[in-house]
Amino acid sequence: MADYKLYAFGESGNCYKVAMMLALTGTEWERLPVDYFNGETRGEAFRAINEMGEAPVLLHKGKVLSQSGVILDYLAAQTGRFGPENEDERREILRWMLFDNHKFTSYYATLRFLVGLQKSGESPVTEFLRGRAKAAFGIVDKHLAASAFLVGNRLTIADLSLAGYIFFDEETGIDLADYPNILAWRARIAAMPGWKAPYNMVPHAPKARG
Amino acid sequence: MADYKLYAFGESGNCYKVAMMLALTGTEWERLPVDYFNGETRGEAFRAINEMGEAPVLLHKGKVLSQSGVILDYLAAQTGRFGPENEDERREILRWMLFDNHKFTSYYATLRFLVGLQKSGESPVTEFLRGRAKAAFGIVDKHLAASAFLVGNRLTIADLSLAGYIFFDEETGIDLADYPNILAWRARIAAMPGWKAPYNMVPHAPKARG
Predict the structure, then answer these.
(1) How far apart are CA A45 and CA A32, in angstroms?
(2) Of the four listed, A104, A130, A137, B189, which is most buried by Cβ atoms within 10 Å?
(3) Domain GST C-terminal spans what residues (chains A, B) (predicted)?
(4) DSSP label at residue B100
(5) How far is CA A143 from CA A139, A180, A185, B107, B180, in A?
(6) What digits encode the pLDDT tens for the residues A2-56?
(7) CA A22 and chain centroid, separation
(8) Are residues A78 and A92 in the same domain?
(9) Taking the CB of residue B57, how many other CB atoms lie within 10 A of it?
(10) A140 touches chain B (CB under 8 A)
């Protein structure tokens, strides 16, 4: 029986960030399914596990960890892989993870949820989100023009955090070809031993009923 | 001359988070002004200081630190105040800071920027942001029903991160009276020795010209 259990569903890039880390470190784990599209994360039972009402949640040796950034930090310490080598790097990784949560994953993931999964069509909200996402993409693309990875010129959990949603191909109305350094970085991550595409690691959540 | 220099402007709650930390720890600092409303953070000169194009930025002993969460973490270590006491607390603080960046400050600050500063009026975008902000406020309010502060039952940098924008009174269309535990928590923070209101520490940025 795997020590690590992860509440996860396939459509979630935040779950995929953690699944990538587990795959790239060769860590055995067991998936606990999440019936996201039927409201499981908004229900009382799930909120008793994570008051923030979000997946992923990692269970390990009595610990219950939520927020993908916390889980990545924890797994880096547990496995000794992809973490910081000193305090300056630790702060740089934290800086990119906070930017990811505030401006990179956040706008892009919400845009992709509306346009690519809910098929909302275009609206002032999708236009707003796309504008914000493109600004964040520009900043990351420029940074990656000068270095192969976000921090320390090697793969770290900062890359796994920001790259999570970039591997999905649902429609967003943003053409990644406009960000060649992001595409090259994504290819470098995908070439790492053990890497797998999102839905090859975590199956789709059940569709919404009726 | 103060060791700490902070690029900051009054309207920014992210700058205020750091200014509160400096005030509550009795740390001397010098402000470096930011002409935000005339585009300084979007210009090349500022991007050379912070590629993410954001304030606050802290300068200290040759270090250039951005992202309020990174700066709070750094100041907690430097001053020995309001930081974690063990690894479990460190992860809990990180968890709330990531939630803050993703869902609490992010939506609320953007809503307040549009409605309260730009006077955008109501739109599908402000409605979207307000819905998201209210969901995040509900989660924090519920958490604070059971404990005086977010982590460890004492003031930490997690509180300073999430509370930043709560002290401003520009219009957002959200009535904080709907979140009594957040109001009580805000009052507990305001009662801490050294606390000052936002514009009493950091002056307004110059108005947009033309």
Answers:
(1) 14
(2) A104
(3) 86-210
(4) I
(5) 6, 12, 11, 25, 43
(6) 799 999 999 999 999 999 999 999 999 999 999 999 999 999 999 999 999 999 9
(7) 13
(8) no
(9) 23
(10) no
Gap between the Cα atoms of A133 and A111, Å rounded:
8
Cβ separation B95–A124 shorter than 8 A: no
- Residues B45 and B115 occupy one common structural domain: no
Reading the block at residue A4, the tokens are: 């690590």
pLDDT of residue A1 exceeding 70? no
Residue A138: closest CA among A188, A104, A185: A104
Nearest to B98 among A67, A124, A128 (CB): A67
Residue B94 touches chain A, beta carbons under 8 Å: yes
Q: Which two tokens stand for residue A127?
A: 């236009």
B41 falls within a domain = yes
A73–B91 C-beta distance less than 8 A: yes
E-strand ranges in chain A read 4-8, 29-33, 57-60, 63-66
Write out chain A residues lying below 8 Å of B52, CB-based.
95, 99, 103, 139
Backbone angles phi, psi at B10, to 5 degrees: -60, -40
Which distant-in-sequence residues (6+ apart) come within 8 Å of B122 by Cβ? B115, B173
- Residues 6+ away with beta carbon under 8 Å from B112: B165, B168, B170, B171, B172
Query: Closest Cα to residue B93, out of B20, B152, B145, B40?
Result: B152
Residue type, B163: A
**C-alpha distances in angstroms, B76 versus A58, A95, B72, B155, B164?**
27, 16, 6, 12, 16
Q: Which residue range(s) make up the domain with B44?
A: 4-82+196-201
B209 occurs within a structural domain:
no
A206 lies in some domain: no
Whole-angstrom distance, CA of residue A80 vs CA of residue A6: 19
Q: How many domains is chain A partitioned into structurally? A: 2
The number of beta carbons lying within 10 Å of the beta carbon of residue B148 is 14
Mean pLDDT of all residues belonging to chain B: 97
Band of residue B1 on the pLDDT scale cut at 50, 70, 90: low
ipTM computed for the complex: 0.98
